[in-house]
Write a structure and sequence with these properties.
The chain has 278 residues and is α/β, with parallel strands linked by helices. The chain has a domain of 192 residues: 3-Layer(aba) Sandwich (Uracil-DNA Glycosylase, subunit E). The protein has eleven helices and seven strands. A seven-stranded mixed beta sheet has the order 1-6-7-5-3-4-2, sandwiched between helices. Strand 6 and strand 7 form a beta hairpin. Helix 1 runs antiparallel to helix 6. The longest helix has 18 residues. It is globular, with a radius of gyration of 21 Å. It starts with a helix and ends with a helix. The structure holds uracil. Uracil binds next to loops.
């Protein structure tokens, strides 16, 4: 059967070839097929493993050459609850609503980045979203337009969301930093720490079901870790006082440069979807 919408999603993600998963044959037929196949090709080498999607989604993308991790390989991670320690001072923005928070951030001069920014990039999407996506920092396009993930990486992010059935306006998208670091350099530690209460307040207001950290900088900042992205992805971390599930995946800008990693990001998205469906 043709699925024009699904095909468009997969194509937008750069997936132009894929194989529709066939339902398993009844045992007696499967046995006959196996016997027939081995009789026809007695010397044939072991066939390559065929990837299966984790969820009931239609068809595995053809670039998914590795099987998705089975559920039991997603290890629970550690909680990062330091902001919620009872004796920690409450940040100035801790009680602000959306509008007051946005105004406060727009006027922020806590670090040097305010000198070079065109504008702050607060965040976008549904304030009631189940899924919160957290990137690194605005780039040149975002600095110009005042919205996160609007450049090429943003287009890929939109396509990735569509592949799990979500529109951009159904999720919330924010960044570790609200201002663009000049030349798109990595955020400095003190810049991230000035911005942290803003993001923490956004997380509190949204109260998402799942957080998706995209890219190393986002994952390391949120989890207060120096581990590589490769070590941080592939398990379900828990974030904050609510133990919100947090999944780490590759930054879409990195995926544009390294499309071979899209298979792993697809595994991560499947895990996000399964957590959203719980
Ligand atoms: N990269 C990010 O991490 N965030 C953006 O908003 C844009 C690009």
């Amino acid at each position: 059967m043709e699925h024009p919408l699904r095909n468009a999603y997969l194509e937008a993600m750069g997936i132009t070839q894929w194989v529709v998963r066939q339902p398993p044959a009844p045992p007696e037929i499967a046995e006959r097929q196996a016997v027939a196949a081995s009789a026809a090709q007695p010397q044939a080498p072991e066939p390559a493993a065929v990837a299966e999607p984790v969820t009931g989604h239609d068809a595995p993308p053809s670039w998914l050459t590795e099987a998705p991790l089975p559920e039991e390989q997603w290890h629970p991670g550690e909680t990062t609850a330091d902001e919620f320690e009872p004796h920690a001072p409450r940040p100035v923005v801790a009680d602000l609503g959306w509008d007051a928070l946005q105004q406060h951030i727009a006027a922020c001069r806590s670090c040097e980045l305010h000198r070079s920014r065109k504008q702050t990039v607060f965040g976008t999407g549904s304030q009631q979203a189940d899924l919160l996506i957290i990137g690194e920092a605005p780039g040149a396009d975002e600095d110009r337009q005042g919205e996160p993930f609007v450049g090429r990486a943003g287009k890929l992010l939109n396509a990735m969301l569509k592949a799990i059935g979500l529109e951009r306006n159904q999720v919330y998208i924010a960044n570790i930093l609200k201002c663009r670091p000049p030349g798109n350099r990595d955020p400095h530690v003190e810049e991230a720490s000035h911005c942290r209460p803003y993001l923490m307040r956004q997380i509190e207001l949204i109260n998402p079901k799942v957080i998706l950290a995209v890219g190393r900088v986002s994952a390391q900042n949120l989890l207060k870790s120096t581990d590589t992205l490769g070590r941080l992805r592939g398990r379900t971390h828990r974030f904050g006082a609510d133990n919100t599930p947090l999944i780490v995946t590759y930054h879409p800008a990195y995926l544009l440069r390294s499309p071979e990693q899209k298979a792993k990001s697809w595994q991560d998205l499947q895990q996000v979807l399964s957590l959203l469906q719980k």
